[in-house]
Write a structure and sequence with these properties.
CATH superfamily of the largest domain: Type I PLP-dependent aspartate aminotransferase-like (Major domain)
Number of strands: 18
CATH topology of the largest domain: Aspartate Aminotransferase, domain 2
Structural class: alpha/beta
Distance between the termini: 33 Å
Number of domains: 3
Number of helices: 19
Largest sheet: 7 strands, mixed
CATH class of the largest domain: Alpha Beta
Radius of gyration: 27 Å
CATH architecture of the largest domain: 3-Layer(aba) Sandwich
Strand content: 15-25%
Length: about 475
């Protein structure tokens, strides 16, 4: 049998075809040439069957060009039920935050210019007053993420000195990111105290020496330890630090500004509570429970924040005008907590009632059925994600789709607007709590295309 790959056309021959030349007049020729080479090479490797006709080669090259020109950072629909999904960009921004970005992005802005004085200003002032108002902190600054905020705090307050931390707080978060490694990059020498499950205040006292640069506590926001456990409350640790004359740093992470106990989310402290505990520095994220852009927010005492601003490393981790604009707009909503719950998407999603989510799931089922796809609404459980409220399970509703789960999921994921769901028990589920109301039509159309392309059965959950 003759291998068809022996007779593959030359790239130059493909580039001379009329349809391919027309394509090269619309987009850079080198992009088209690279696409043609990629198509030929993929067939040569056996990754794809040879196109059955010259016109099919034209189509394959055009598809490869589209793929090459498409941005890698794309909008997706989060149908996973994980509200703060790190892989999907964590918190979506509010309309006010988007408007603020637009306002400053299209022209010049007073980023480091003091309009009243007519002189050079500082970018650190833009969110500081609002953060202090909302948290009770003496001073505040914003850097590019929480990890860099922690590095900056350690490098400023305890460079080349011992930093004492409980063994139970030497955590790892996503992407194999570990607190000990960050401490080392910040110039701190790690001193562990206590055990995995129990640490007492006297452990910190006994570990204190003239070489101690700081006490560090890390909020265990992405896991929980139950049973025979003991830990030191932030207020106790800050009190001991003041007594011994060493700085106290608290890595808060999740960035919660409002108590969400009435929505069934308990066990997570608020930023105001941690600032009131007396820590010299509290660091937290802007794109988790706060619901803003990626940012590292630093709260604390005036002297500590001033020292961090003066550290040359602060320039390496500074934020741009777009982040500051979005963060300021997000924070402004928190002046009225009820307004924040409605306008900040993360808060709105987390506090939505089970009945309202069920109604939205029913609307999605109806929209899918109007497009010829029979699907089923089922109970579900959403999670917070983003290293916050790790044990919380939020009542939700999902739509179970028909057809071969692997094929349907892949078709949804690779569509014009990728819809990211989950496969459970051999079926694709779309959790509606994390789907915005204005995305329902987009999702229904994506479902119809995916089910058709996968040749799915009309019965939910069955293989094609």
């Amino acid at each position: 049998m003759t291998d068809a790959r022996r007779n593959l056309p030359a790239v130059n021959t493909l580039l001379e075809r009329e349809a391919v030349q027309a394509l090269a007049r619309r987009v850079p020729r080198e992009v088209v040439a690279d696409a043609a080479r990629a198509v030929v090479e993929s067939v040569r490797r056996g990754a794809h069957a040879p196109p059955p006709s010259p016109a099919a080669w034209d189509t394959a090259i055009a598809t490869a060009v589209d793929r090459a020109l498409a941005p890698t950072l794309r909008r997706v629909v989060n149908a996973t039920g994980v509200v703060l999904h790190t892989n999907l960009g964590r918190a979506p921004l509010s309309r006010a935050a988007l408007a603020a970005i637009t306002e400053v992005a299209g022209g010049y802005a007073a980023l480091e210019y003091d309009i009243e004085a007519g002189a050079r200003g500082s970018r650190h002032v833009h969110c500081a007053a609002l953060l202090c108002e909302l948290t009770g902190a003496e001073a505040a600054m914003v850097v590019n993420n929480c990890a860099s905020a922690l590095v900056l705090a350690l490098n400023t307050l305890a460079d080349q000195r011992d930093v004492v931390i409980s063994r139970g707080e030497l955590v790892e978060i996503g992407g194999s990111f570990r607190v000990p490694a960050i401490m080392a990059k910040g110039g701190a020498r790690l001193v562990e105290v206590g055990t995995t499950n129990r640490t007492h205040l006297d452990d910190y006292r006994r570990a204190h020496t003239p070489a101690t640069g700081a006490f560090l506590s890390v909020h265990r926001s992405n896991f929980a330890i139950d049973g025979f456990v003991a830990s030191v409350a932030p207020r106790e640790l800050a009190g001991l630090a003041r007594e011994l004359g060493v700085p106290c740093i608290h890595d808060f992470g999740s960035g919660l500004l409002l108590d969400l106990a009435d929505a069934g989310l308990t066990g997570e402290p608020t930023a105001r509570e941690l600032v009131a505990s007396g820590a010299d520095v509290v660091v937290m994220s802007g794109d988790k429970l706060l619901g803003g852009p990626q940012a590292g927010i630093v709260l604390g005492r005036t002297a500590a924040i001033a020292a961090m601003r003066d550290n040359p490393l602060a320039r390496a981790v500074r934020v741009d005008k777009l982040t500051l604009a979005a963060l300021a707009a997000t924070l402004a909503a928190y002046r009225d907590p009820s307004r924040a719950r409605q306008e900040v998407p993360v808060l709105r999603v987390l506090t939505a009632t089970a009945d309202s989510v069920r109604e939205q799931a029913a609307a999605l089922v109806a929209a899918c059925e109007a497009r010829g796809v029979r699907c089923e609404m089922v109970p579900s459980e959403a999670t917070v994600g983003g290293g916050a409220f790790p044990t919380a399970r939020i009542p939700s509703s999902a739509v179970r789709l028909p057809g071969n789960a692997v094929q349907v999921e892949a078709a949804l994921r690779t569509g014009d607007v990728p819809v990211i769901g989950r496969i459970t028990g051999g079926a694709v589920f779309l959790d509606v709590r994390t789907i915005a109301a204005d995305e329902l039509v987009t999702v229904a159309e994506a479902v119809a295309r995916a089910v058709r392309s996968a040749g799915a059965s009309a019965t939910p959950g069955t293989a094609s």
